[in-house]
Amino acid sequence: MLRTIFCSRCLLQTILNSVKQQLNVHYRLIHSENLAKLQTNEDELLSAIAHRELFEEQFSDQRRSRKSSTLRPGRSSTPPSTTTSNLKLLNRPTSNINKKQTIRTKQHQLPDVIVTEKIDLAHPKPKNKRAISVSSTSALTSPLAEIPSEMNKQHNIEEQNRLKSISQRLNITAPPPSSSFRLTQPETLSSDEKRKDDILEDEFRTEDEKILVELLGTLDLKKVRQMHKYTDEELKIMRKHQTFNEILLAYVDVSIYNGKLRKVRQFFDKLCLDQERRKTMKRLSWKYPSNVNIYNTIMFAHAENGTLRAVQTLFEKMRSSHIKPTLESYAAVLTCLGNLDMFDPTIAKRIIFDIEKNGFRVSDIFHLNCLNNEQIRRILKVLKILRPDFKVPPIPDEVHTKLLQNVYEQPSPITDKSNIQGDLWWKNINFKEKLAKQLQWEQEQKVVFKSISITKQVNDHYVDKQKQLYMEMEQQLIVGFLTELEILKRETEPDKLSIIPFLEIFDAKEYIQIVMKEVNGLFYGSDYYSLPYNVLCSNLGKRIHQRYLTDVRKKNGFLDNLQSIYQEYIEHCVSNQRFIKNERQKWNEIVTNHFTFMDRSYRPWSYVQICQIGDFFYRVMLKYMKLTVPLSSQKRNTINKREANSILHVVHRTPGKYTEKQIKVHPTVLRFFAHLPEQQLEFDCTELPCLVPPLPWINCHTGGYLLNQTDFLRLPLSANQQDQYLKSISVQQIGGVLDSINALNSCPWKINQRILDTIISIFEKGGDKTFSVPLSLKNPSIPDMVHIDKGLSNDEKRRRERERFKLVKQRAEIFSLWSNELYRLSIANQFRNEIFWFPHNLDFRGRVYPVPPHFNHLGSDIARGLILFAEGKPLGANGLRRLKIHLINLTDLKKRQSINEREQYANEIMDDILDSADKPLTGRLWWSKSEEPWQTLACCMEIANAIRSPDSTKYLSYFPVHQDGTCNVLQHYAAMGLDDVGAASVNLKPSDLPKDVYSDVVEMVELERQKDEELNIEMAKILKGFIKRKVIKQTIMTTNYGVTMYGARQQIGRQLRDIEDFPKIHVSEASTYLAKKTFLCLRELFRETKKIQDWFKDCASLISRVRGTAVEWNTPLGLPVVQPYYKEIKIKESGHELMDYFNMNSRPNNIKQKNAFPPNYVHSLDSTHMMMTALNCAKNGITFVSVHDSFWTHPCDVDILSKICREQFVALHKEPLLENLSQDFTNKFGFKSSEFSKADETQTKTMKLINDTIHRVPERGIFKLESVLDSTYFFS
What we know:
The chain contains 48 helices and 22 strands. By secondary structure, the protein is mostly helical. Among the domains are: 232-408, Serine Threonine Protein Phosphatase 5, Tetratricopeptide repeat (Alpha Horseshoe); 456-630 and 644-678, no CATH class; 963-979 and 1090-1184 and 1205-1275, no CATH class. It has a three-stranded mixed beta sheet with strand order 9-11-12, with helices on one face. Helix 22 (558-573) packs across helix 24. This is DNA-directed RNA polymerase.
């Protein structure tokens, strides 16, 4: 808290001396004659205050220290003097109750002190309301004190000059350097280390960021909030209103599905009437319907009944409430007219006139996602009465993206007669049976198959007990569900939005079947940990929501229409046709030709409702699931059920920084299931690959699994701002994004059975670290649990407790890794004779991921070694060479050698390669020493098969070969900034040998160390011989992702501790030294790159702090991106409290917005590059798969892929990306001239700063972008 105190110097010194054990005080003395000259008032006094986060940490440490000292005998907890209390009154905000009394006390005790409160906006305000001060950095004793400071001095001079120039440009008086005084007290080591890290962090703070800190310090909180798009009160009302409408929409939709349209309409009319009454009384309210989808849902329900008058009444309500109708609204009216035997044509004419008047087209109605076949027929009936020659228009499939003109405007070189498929693998597959099986899985929403961990027969006694327990629990849950539902109905007021309709969708047994899967997962979980209670509730609510969506689609005819046309789509996906006409275009053609329109609209439930539904069922489980079945004896339990033990309990654990509510299973049940391994594994169908090609993404809500809802974006439930943007843009704008995902979806896969059998044989024996197969808890190398016996001494008991704690943690980690591998191998074993496909979706940045979580090609080395392309292609003249080079790339042995040297090395060790292929577990095990052992073994087998074939050029290879980028984030940065030196370091420039940026930085750091050693710096001498690639590689990598100095020290410290010869006493100082040197060398190596990164941070910081909104932008392919980082808010509904971290109607998290924007923007670029490459590969008939910046294809197509990859990278960076981003920011966040007229002088200066920063695109270097086309090692 910042204060200005008018008093004599002597009095101030007396106060400070009195409180030196209580506060750290930072102040500057100013003579009264000079006080009037200050233009920035009292804020100028403390313009040099450092990080606000440091304040909070320091104050927390001091407070804990004081608290502990008050508990010591003989120490008083009262303040040492009255003066101390008076100063605390100055620095502590008061509550509303005692505000007047406190002010009187201040005036009475210190009549000559004037207090004005300001807040440093450059850093977040701490949650702790107490006053917090920061000490001078000069008083700190840093291990870096011995490092020469010439560079820092030069940096400070440049900073002051830049501050002066920008201040002159903005007509701001630059604050003079301030002196400081520090009163200290002992602190903990961790706090001291963090303080040092913050000092080091400040040295690497960008110049503009420092200027921003200074300039924002001249504004108080109120003035900055005036520049935000919305005030805090407005955000609060908007948040409540948005949540209310989300809840109301789901409530209306589910109630109508349950057949309660009349009740819904009465409730809705009452809400509208109440809102009208409040308007008349001029009272503010947020409980009124404003979401047009609520009106549309009710109108479609009335349209199904043919009640035109009800539809017209709703339309009038929309107009009176100033809610603009959408195309769906007009479609509902036309559907209602078509449902009538006779209607007035003038009504239809007026509707069509309104459609065109509001900027819509009648033909666009047939492209809506919410209409089924019957509704389309009714609308067509109405239009044909007005226009007898009217025909259903084809669905447009063009894409309006400059970067993709060559893909969509030029004809494909592939024809029906092109011989691009090596084998017709699909000829002997019965896709009709596979389609039926996939649909059965999705209707049942679960798949059950045998676990590979069952190696011996389970005791029948345990099996019978398990069945008996499950039957008893199911009966208990049904009774509990019906009882609690009836209680809820009695206690709920008639006009309240409750979850009762959501509990009446299915019968009780269907609900309990879903719940039993959750119970089964808990029984096979851990005794020491569970997911947080809110997460468990959310997951259960999502399961019920998914079941509801599936039932809705079955009811509206979606399933029947899908079965009638999907066979034709499958035939398109497995033949050459998919390279001539993409999947989205073909699907739209099939739907139009067969007149099979399907309602696949997304019916969302709010985050609050999903958690409430899950909470309801968990409360039923906690209350009614009793252990009445004896699990340890043959006798029937005769205990009264009310007195029986509950199976589930609520516990509160602290797994990390915060305590959280968790669920614990009764120990008897856990012990019983520990002796009863899972004979069968049960998965949601969305956790497994598809047996047929996935449904193509035709818009942002239709695609993926055939019947089950698949999210297009991986976002938290409440982070819906980006989803709203996607709904508002046309398919033509993001068609390229959709088509690129469809190209990845259409790649068929199969299991590498030899690798699978080898891994399973090791897994069943308890795993083996040598082969990177996770150990099981039954492995002999796992130490037994330590027992704490009675009679042990206190020291021995504590020692065993510590050891036991470590073993518990170790065993939990081992069990987690083993379980993940069990799922992966069991799924692979289930699909060993199948051809399958992976559906894909996006994260918020546009990066693509396969939807199945346990088994996919983005997984571990084992997962990647298990899969092959289902379609084989002849190796051709260059395929075998590419296989050999790929093999050596996997081993990571020759990363600094040329391509030809890698091939030569493969030929030299061919005997080891063949030995690995023939005797994987009994030979010389050369493959097991590789960086990626299982992929290496699979490649050895493929090379052996190719060499031993009669003609290797005709050998059909199903093996995917990778082309990986060199530190791809830095490649994009170097290309954006045309950074010549940086481009050479990441292989953008042609060279005879590959560059390794990690080794380059290591060499630079070593040179810096040698210079310091000559200056007799002790730490440089200690680190001699220890600066290696492994030590600082992680720090170099994570620098691109915004790693802080503190994080870099931790990374380097972990590596140094793993070096046996390094003196552990110097780890802290050495990690600090190396972190600073690494940062300096990276800035020197990537100068233009750092300018861009700094500009990104400056823009993001201003947008989030001053504009008070999240950073958002559009990718070059038109995908809108919003960073979902917000401050947490509490949602209280029905007596339950939920924490929401992603609500768009809350303030952004400034730190996350700033630090995450640079890597997020670059990731949106690398996803764009991948999508452009995927589309061009599909156009040229090449199989393409990606793992972010690793591109996969057949060995024979590697050269073509390499050419396309480079061409698309150059095409992407030929675009003015930074200028486009600047313009995008200007349109969304820049201040307009009208806003300047309403601002005062200080606000105007800040507005100018924001506009100037956004427009200031960094200058570029001299790198020639076209040279990427000739770079052998750009992707290799």
